[in-house]
Amino acid sequence: MRKKKLGPVLLSGLIIGPILGSGIILLPPLIYKTTGDYAIIAWLLIMGIGFLFASLFGKLSILFPSESGVAHAVDQAFGPSMKQLTSIFFIIAGCLGPTAVLMTASQYIAALFSNFKVPLEGIGFLLMCLCVLILLLDISSIGKISFVFSTAATVLLLSGGIRSIPHFRSEQLVQTSFSFGDFGYSILLLFWALVGWEIIGNYSMDVKNRKKTIPQAITISTLTVTVVCLVVAGATQWIVIPSSHQEDLRITAILATLFGEFAVPLIAFITTVLCMSTYLLVVGGVSRLIASEAKYIKKLYTLSYRTKSNVSIYSLLFLIGIHTIVFICLYNDFITVEQIVAIANAFFICNAICGIFAAYKLLPGLFNKILSLSLIVCFLIILSFSSIWILISIGILVGFYGLQYFKNRPNTYEKEISIR
Predict the structure, then answer these.
(1) In this structure, is residue 64 part of a structural domain?
(2) Contact, 218 vs 58, CB < 8 A?
(3) CA–CA gap between residue 90 and residue 74 (Å, rounded)
(4) Domain count, the chain
(5) DSSP letters along 118-175, please?
(6) 270 and 199 in contact (C-beta within 8 Å)?
(7) Is the residue at 418 inside a domain?
(8) What is the pLDDT at residue 70?
(9) Does residue 127 sit within a domain?
(10) Could you tell me which residues are beta bridge partners of residue 239?
């Protein structure tokens, strides 16, 4: 049976929803509250970084396609030790981050059905089960579902944002004072809006005509994401909100300008489909990475098994088991959603930095070198705002695999000499 491949539209559908994700709902009010009317500048900066980030990983995906994604490019650049480190960063992030995304959707669903006393963790678990059923389909079907989700959410958010323009305040648009500390912190928070671009590589083997499809999909996706984010962010900080509305209801107020009393169920729908899209992309990418890496580890070989539709079933079940444990921990207050996001964000950043180092070494041309170094500096600065315990954990992992890397380098060199 011939496996279905993704074209630029379906690949874009698989990317847009997850990139928007829970961030398009949570971040605009939060960034405005943090840095005031300069929030739109922060959004412009992060969107620019996102485009450069996406184009860099798109080039890597074309030249070094693999279901291991970023880890494969790192392997080509620095060998198996650094590949394992990159994989661990991504897997740790994938074991935690997706649960926080589903918890975001749970909050809006619970607000919509306030009469049903179901714990947020229970709603999140049910959403996870629904996502698992979708993930059992072939990649083309998942792409179509994500495309529908992404399109619906994009149309609704753009419509509400554009319709709210007449409600923009008539006074000067920039009224708040600038604080460098608050502005820098808002950039840190906005990294959540970049999570997802590095996962393109995990789907590179399911794309037809990579040289055309991946650049086209990145162009479509970045333009769509940028327009939606800037419209919603602009409306969030400049629309006149009645005093009865709280800060965290600004997105609902934006939709209310067009949809009236239907704004609440619509925001619940948008949040749910975007969060599910994020879950599908990240969990699908991580399960593929686990399956790809498990082939080389005898004790974990079972995790590499795939169904006829190329679903990494056992690695998927492994992830679902971990996510279930995380939901239980959340329910018992052993950990908070904020802590999950902080940990996942740090490891997503580390995974991205590893990939950018690989891009610096593998991609030809001065522009790619300068771009890679610039992104590395940006991401290291963002990472520095993480918890000291997270940074220590990352340092231990880097130290261990760094020693392995330098220990194996002489052996590799000797092999090359003997071959010559």
Answers:
(1) yes
(2) yes
(3) 13
(4) 1
(5) --HHHHHHHHHHHHHHHHTS-HHHHHHHHHHHHHHHHHHHHHHHHHTGGGB-SS-S--
(6) no
(7) no
(8) 73
(9) yes
(10) 168
pLDDT in tens, 236-257: 777 765 544 444 456 777 777 7
Q: 258, 91 in Cβ contact below 8 A?
A: no
Torsion angles phi and psi, residue 3, rounded to 5: -75, 135
Q: Which amino acid is at 248?
A: D
The pLDDT tens digits for 78-125 are: 888 888 888 889 889 888 888 988 888 888 788 777 777 788 889 999
- Quick one: which of 278, 273, 255 has its CA closest to 108? 273
Are 139 and 203 within 8 A, CB to CB?
yes
User: What is the CB neighbour count within 10 angstroms for residue 166?
Assistant: 9
Query: CA angle 18-21-23, nearest 5°?
Result: 140
- Cβ neighbours of 136 (radius 10 Å): 14
Length of the chain measured in residues = 420
Closest CA to 267 of 410, 376, 408, 104: 104
> CB of 274 within 8 A of CB of 22?
yes
Q: Identify the domain containing residue 265 by its residue range.
A: 8-407
- For residue 419, being part of any structural domain is answered with no
- For residue 233, give Cα distances in angstroms to 28, 83, 269: 5, 37, 19
CATH number at 129 reads 1.20.1740.10
